[in-house]
Hints:
With 305 residues, chain A is mainly alpha-helical.
Amino acid sequence: MGPFPTVQPPVEEESTSGFFDFLGGLTDFLGNNTSVLPGVLGGLLTGEAYGRLSDVGKEARMGADELAQRQLEMSQFKPFTVTTATGSGFGSMMGADGGLQTTMTLSPEEQALQQQLFGGAGDFFGQATQPTAEREQEIFQRMRTAMSPEEQRQRLEQEQRMAAQGRLGVRTAQFGGTPEQLALAKAQEEARNSAMLGAMQQARQEQMQQAALGQQFLGAGYMPQQQLVAGLQPGLTQQQLEQQSRQFGSGMFGEATMSGLEAMLSSEMARANLLGGVGANLLSGAVTPKPAFGMSDLLGLLGKG
Amino acid sequence: MAQELKSINLVAPAFKGINTEDSPLAQDPSFAEIADNAVIDKRGRIAARKGHSVITTNKTELGSGIIRAIKEFDRSVGSNVILSVGNNKIFTGTTTLTDATPGGYTITADNWKIVNFNDKAYLFQASQAPLVYDGTSVVRLDSVAGAAGVVQGNEVLSAFGRLWVTGVSSNPSIIYWSDLLIGHDYSGGTSGSIDISKVWPDGYDEIVALAAHNGLLIIFGKHSIVTYSGAEAPATMALADTVAGVGCVNRDTVQYTGTDVLFLAHTGLKSFGRTVQEKSLPISSLSGNISKDIIASLQNETQFFRSIYSPEEGFYLLTFTSQDMTYCFDVRGTLENGSYRVTRWPSTTFASFTRLNDGTLYIGTSNGISTYTGYSDNNVSYRFKYYSPSLTFGDSSRVKILKKLKPTLVGANDATVFMKWAYDFDTTYATAEFTVGTQITGFYGLSEYTTVEFTAGQLTNQRSLNTTGYGTSVQVGLESEINGFALSLQEINVMALIGKLL
């Protein structure tokens, strides 16, 4: 932070000299014209006071503008960077267009991990969005593969029983084959149906599992970034403290400068008021009949004499 | 010095029936070499069979055909109807054969099997649409309302509340059963079928006949038998037993005797014994005394086999129609070798049989329907023959010189009897003829003694006939034309001199 600028008050000597030069001339004039002089002098003083008030306003505005510019510069955002322990970094800077640019950079290892997780998430989400029919069929086939040997054994056992009973060739309108064959076929078909439904359920569960895994991978993929952001917090705090300090300094500077300006304005206003009051009195005396007014009186009014 | 006559008394000759299997010399004299048109009567004697009396008076529809099957349609309401087939027609009635063949229905053979089932009669034969008779008309079975899956089988069995049909030419090992109590539905309800082609004990066979006995469904193949238990519920019936090497020749040889099922196998007449306790099927040979003869007959048969069991007559008749030969098996008991006593009835022209509920035996011939009654074949005589085996009188090495034959006959009223004898297996017989003459059962021929209370049944006639010739073995015989009266041979007393050693 640079040094606080100082506002220089107007040079008083120059204004006082001109004024008294004016008054000398006026005295001379008044010495010669004692009846007109107070009025003219009063008008001049009043005009002078008016002009001075105008000048002091301009100077105050200029000072305020300058102060604002200085405070703007003083409160300008300062770029900063944060680097985490894992090598990822956070940077914040002003762009060429004046906008604020923020960059976050992961370490190569974190980027690789993130890419891997994002890839996995994509794969899982891709699998989760696939139709489940093919997977159902696949699961069903695997279940059937597991069930088929037992079913085959059951069929063979039944076939042997039927053969021993001489009933292999039985066909009935009621059952198709024998009641036992119907029962076994029914049981096996029910198992088949259960397997089919189980396969559908399993496929859906797997789909949900894929989606959940994708979600987990996706979340895990953002974990380095989250950790970067989390690691950024102390740096941000530091930056905020610095920002607050700068803003505080800027405020202090502004207040101090404004105090100076206000003091200058008060002084100038008082002088203008004084001058205006003198002028007004003079004008009032000029237009009001009264005994002769000597130069000494005027000087007594002005405090010079 | 005069030699003593040796008397050999043939008491109740041939009461064991024919035996053509054992050597004549070694045979029991109780066997017969020939017993034609004979039965074993109630006293165990050989006797002439009954004849048949034609009851059909109008056989116009039969024409020159022969009644090939007869069945009494046994219905719950109304009188029973006799169904018969012949000349490629279906007939109803007995005195007048009324053609009941369905209109537009062409019959090409008369080998029908007719069964009663649930107030209807069903007729099946191979390659012919089955028919059904409901007491009003004969119609095609497949035209009955609700008929489904009707098959053209050659064998049908009414048992266990269903019709069982088999013998379909394209599927000779399949049995179809109808829905419960519905003989025309073979594809609905509890109907079904069983293919026993994998059950045959020796690999392959074809179903010939079906029977139901002792809770078993008996399936006769050509050379094997399969039985199923639990046929009341066909879907769950199970194989009970199998018999390899014994089958049935023809569906029409199967007869129920109440305690057995008789059937003709390729090796003769067979029967099942009770098998409930034994869990097996001991098969006894019932034609062991004429095995070769009956095998030759069945091998030579070109037409139909017909059989009947008559508990009233106590016989099982088996007829080979093309050979016009009927074997009569006396089923009242078996001999030591397990065979039935058997006699032959040649040239009877019997072509079919049925036994009515009242025990009457109906016979189908070219004359229509007859009843087995009387002692003439529709007023035509038939010849009763008895020939003993060759007799050696206990010593085949000595010469026998026949002196007298003393037959004792029962009945034979007014019959001419021919006593015959021959020596040493000669087939040329010496003959002694005598006439029994008219026999009056009343005492002294007075009418007052001819009342029923004095008619003491058939009379006995004894004769003594002189004989000639000699030889080491002697065969004696008796022939008589049966024409209206019964004849039984009580005994033959043979008087012979025993000569020197040869």
